[in-house]
Structures are given as C-alpha cells and as structure tokens.
Amino acid sequence: MKEPYEAYLDDYNCLDVYMSKNFFGGKSRIFHMKDTKDRIIPLTIQSQSDLYNGYTHYSLSLNGNLEIGQEYTVYDEHCKTCVAKYSHIVKTERFAKEYMYEKEDLGATYTPEKTTFKVWAPTALAVHVGYVLNGKKIVESMVRQDKGVFSLTVNKDLNGVHYSYLVRVNGEYKGVTDPYTCFSGPNGQYSVIVDPKSLKLPKKIKLKPMDSECDAIIYEASIRDMTSQTGIGVSHPKKFVGFTEENEITKAHNTGFSYLKSLGVTHVQLMPVFDFGSVDEVYPNIFYNWGYDPVQYRCLEGAYSLDPKNAKLRIEEFANLVHDCHKAGIRVNLDLVFNHVYVKENFALENMVPDYYFLMNREGEFSNGSFCGNDIDTQPYMARKYFLETCKKIIELFDVDGFRFDLMGILDYNLMNEISEECKKLKPDFMIYGEGWNMPSFVAEEIRASQLNQAKMPHVGHFSDRFREVVRGSNDELSRKGFASGQADLFYQVKCVMAASCMDHVFDSPAKVINYVECHDNHTLWDKNRVCCHGESRDLREKRQIMANAMVLLAQGVPFIHCGQEFGRTKQGLGNTYNRSDNYNRVDYQRRDHHIEIVERTKELIQLRKEHPCFRLSTVEDIEKGVQFDSIYDQVLVYSCQKGDDHCVAFFNPTNIPYDYHLDQEARVLFDDGNSNALEAQDIHIASFSVVVCQFGLTA
C-alpha cells in the first residue's frame, strides 16, 4: 500500500478497501460508492481483518450494478474518499465475455482523406488523441463504443503527424503512445502516422522451402556487435544498414556481412531489434544493452537507425536488411521478448487497461518468474490477440523466417501453438522455438510453454540445456567439465543428446531440439574452458572448441551457434555482459584471425551437415532406424547415421590418448582435424582430442 486509503474492484460484486491504521485507526463502520453521474452504490461490509503491514482490510459487496468504464469514488464514514481502482475484475470471465473485441483495426488507420484512431480501453473513463498539425497542438476526445473500444475519425490528411493518447483510468490521466503502431519517434516519445503506401520496401525474395527445421543452421548475432569494431570497413557501424554493408574492405578483410556470408549458415538469429528502453536512441553510444527490455513490441529500435527521428526510415532499413540476407540465401529469425516489459508503469497497454496484461493473483501480487518484476499474462483473449497479431504483422512487413522466444516458459503453450499455426500459414517453413525453462511464474505448470510440455506443442522448438550441460559442462559451475572438455564418463548422456534426446523420449521430434553449447547468456565456451581446462595449451583448447562445435553441428536436431563461437569468442571472463559496453561485446575480427583454424574447421562442418541428410533426420522413427552408437573403451564416441544411401560415421575423442577403429568396409574420410588418415581408409586413426567423420559407399 502506498496511500492511507485504497480501494480495488476485484469482481463485479466485490470491492476490497485497505485503510491504514494511521488513518482514523483504520476503522470505518460504513462505505458507499458514487460514480461521475452522482449515482450511489451502497456497499456492505462482508469481512474485516487486520493486516501485518499496518492496514485494515475490508471486503465489501456491491448493492447495485457496476458499469465498467465509470469512475467510482469510495466514501467511508468520515467522508474521506478514494478512487476505486479496476483491478482483478479485468481477469474475470464476465469481463472477458463482455469486452472481447475481434476486429483487427485497433491503432491508427490512415487514408489521405481521414485517419481513424481506435484503442481498446474498457476500464477507462475517457480517452483523448493529442496530435500536432501545422505546428498547432490539438486534443480531441474519442467516443466510447461497444466492447470497450474508443474511436475518433479526423477528416484531414495526417500523414507524418505525431500523436499520442491521453487515457483517464483509475482516477488519473496517463500519456500513452500507440501500442498498435509500427511507427515511433525517438525513445518512444510519440507515435507517428505514416501512409503505408509511401514505404519504400524491397521486393520479397522467395527462398527454397526447408523440408524440416533440422535443415536449419542458426547463427545468433547482434546488430551492434557485428560491426562495432573500428577499422573493419563498415561506414555505418552498429546500424541496420551497417549489418549488411559490403565493400572492397569488408570483402578483403572478411568482416561484417561478408564474414557472415562466408560461414555458410542458413539462418541468422538477431538479438532484439524491437524498441527497448535501456539505450538512449538519440545518443546510442552512451549506453550498451542487448535489448531484452521491451518498450514497444511493434516498433523497431531507433538506436539501430541512421535517423531515429525518422519513423519510416527504420522500417525501410530493417526491411532492406532482411532482403539483403535473403539475397545471400540467409534466412532471418528474430528474438522476441514477450515475457516482460522494461517498466510496467510506463507500458502503453498497462496504462490503457491496468493489470489486464500482467500475471497477478487475487491478492494483487504480480508474478516474477522473469525476475524483472513483471510477467506478461498471455492467457486473456485481448492479450493473446495482441501478441498473435504482432507476430503476423512482423512477418507481413519484414518477411522474416522465424521467432525465438525469450523465457518462453512464462508464456502458455496454447499461445505458442496459435503463433506457430498462424506463422506457418504465412510461411510453411517458419521456425518457432524458445527458452522452454520451467519458470516459477503464476502460470499453471501444466500449461506453461516449457520443455515439460513439449509434447503439447507439435511445432515449437526448445533450447536443449541438456545438450549444453552434457557437451559443454555445467553452466553454473565453471570448473565442471562436459564430454567435449574431457569428461569422457558422460558416455550414456552424450549418446542421448546426440540422438536429439529422442531415443530416450525426452523429446518426441528432433525438429524441436535446439542443440547449443553457447549463446549470448552466460560465459562463452572459450571462457568456460579456460576455467574447466585450466593449464591446457591454447592449441588444445582450440581442439576442444572444434570438438564442441562438431557435436553441435553433427548431432540430430537443430544446431545453434553463437556469433564468435567459431573463433573462441571471449567476454574477458564475464558471464553476463548485457550492459557492459562494446569493448566486451563486439565481434573481434583480429581475434577471429588469430583463431582461424577453428573458423575454417567450423565452416567445413557446416558444409558437411548441409551436404549429408543423415545428420538431419527429421523424425524419431528415422533416428531409431538410422542412428547407432559404439565406443572405443567407453572413451571415444562412435556415432553412425544413415538416411537412404547416405551413411556416415563420426568419431569424437575427448581424451589425450589416440585410438584406432576398424570399419567393416573402406570409407571416404570427410573430416579429420587430427590429420591422421588418408582420403580413403578402413582402419581409422582417431588422434587425441580430435574428430573424424567418414562416409561409406563412395570409394572406388
């Protein structure tokens, strides 16, 4: 409680009042409510209790009909007043039925003759539109319509006009930007009306459809990090346009987009590109942040634009970025943060319908599974409708190819299935995956979009922390090794994860399993190995890095590589650099050149996966039929894969002892970072700390 006297409408017939004991001793014998038309609703005290925080709680019943959208003033026996705030009432079934708005016309709809503004704000007493036209500030009242929608049509050409909403709800006015628009001013100060026909968007490029998510090779990158190092030939570093900029210098030094193209990955997964609150868009170099602080879900981040004051430009710049990637044969996945917002109190949807979009219980406590102080509630109809429409708009506008969901376990699996269904209607091979951690939120465990419920999400992928822990080693205890760093006794577990955790039925499809050993979170693999493989030489740690990358790229499932993982990226020993500056986060191309052996070997493995369907089995049945394991003294993993005529066997030796293995027929050696075998061999030598891959059926 902040005030000495507060009241909350939790249901259509229930009001909770909290009175401080410093406020008339927290006592009142009677209460009533009065609306803005001076109509009185009597209140009856149902219960009274003393709270530990110095307040008296009164549970009151309403002796009259409640009109949603009216502003009610509560009176106690001393004629002291407070506004009854709409609270848990917005979570009730009755509210959901009465205010379900199914049309997709919220926001500002522009034509040269008129612009129609619509917002959904059922609990608001009044909503106004403020805009600036010809240097004059104008404020007009919106008209309340059915289903809690407020509307206003302005019969003028408002193209390029700045606007915002003024919403009166729960007794106060709040300035609100338009949560339904894609066009924003710098730092979300205002929204902008834009004629969609004036957007200069590139023609969409149709890529050959993927047969399965297992055909993807995902590369996680940051718009800022890829080009923030000086002297790499990029004239617009840290920007959308700089991300895909190419010239003679970038080509000669293999930097920026030229480098990304050279890797051979199929998908680039971009860290958040939509408006986040932790960087000043006008002075973007003062602060650094990864961007997991959502402010506007449909507006791009202005710090990545050449001119954050130009609402159209950032749209065009990003659309061109996607187009450039598609032209290079690279698909684009976006990292979406639908689980929390930067500041709940400033969030536009919160100020239009307080509490509706956030997880809360009857006691008014808010869920904190995200550990950010607020968790989005995706279950109410208008909330899921908003996020579903957001996903569709992003695809339609930018032609992207996939979404990765941050802390997906806070969302509910029904929403994820709806998103998957709608996105695949637009693009059949669209990818949907996320962090399926079982977060401690108010969402019931049985409906969380977590790994525990993967069987209920047929087309939604999950990051495999199991793969990470087995191959890399403990994410929390840096000293604890994984198989690739020398813990050879993880033999049973490594067989399970190399088969996409499908043989032991942890997952029911390899297309759902995102295999990784490094991402933007936590220590890089190189920094982890500097601790758990302390005392080993740099050359040996390079071999460890190659082995881990090989296991990611050759395992069944979907491989995921963090930018720089292919050259031993370092965060200077820090585990979390989300706001640490470019110095810690930039892609270091000099370091890349220093560890070029890892790069070249990783590129070979990427190409090998693309050329051999046996490493991309798309069903459990294919894995059970085509994958077999053997070992050499329970130290070296022997991993055999077959699909049709494509039959390969891979050896992973994480020990300091070389081993030999006799094949039942001669095979072509496709990869051997120990350089120990001829091009064709039947007796395979597996050098210490090495990976060997052979293919059957190609010898003369």
From TrEMBL:
The keyword Hydrolase applies. Its EC number is 3.2.1.41. The keyword Transmembrane helix does not apply. Residues 247-609 form the Glycosyl hydrolase family 13 catalytic domain. Keywords: Glycosidase, Hydrolase. It is an enzyme of class 3 (hydrolase). Pfam families: Alpha-amylase, CBM_48, PulA_N1. One of its GO terms (molecular function) is pullulanase activity. Gene3D superfamilies: 2.60.40.2320, Glycosidases (3.20.20.80), Immunoglobulins (2.60.40.10). InterPro entries: GH, GH13_cat_dom, Glyco_hydro_13_N, Ig-like_fold, Ig_E-set, PulA_N1, PulA_typeI. It comes from the Bacteria. PANTHER family: GLYCOGEN DEBRANCHING ENZYME. Belongs to the glycosyl hydrolase 13 family. This is Type I pullulanase. It comes from Holdemanella hominis.
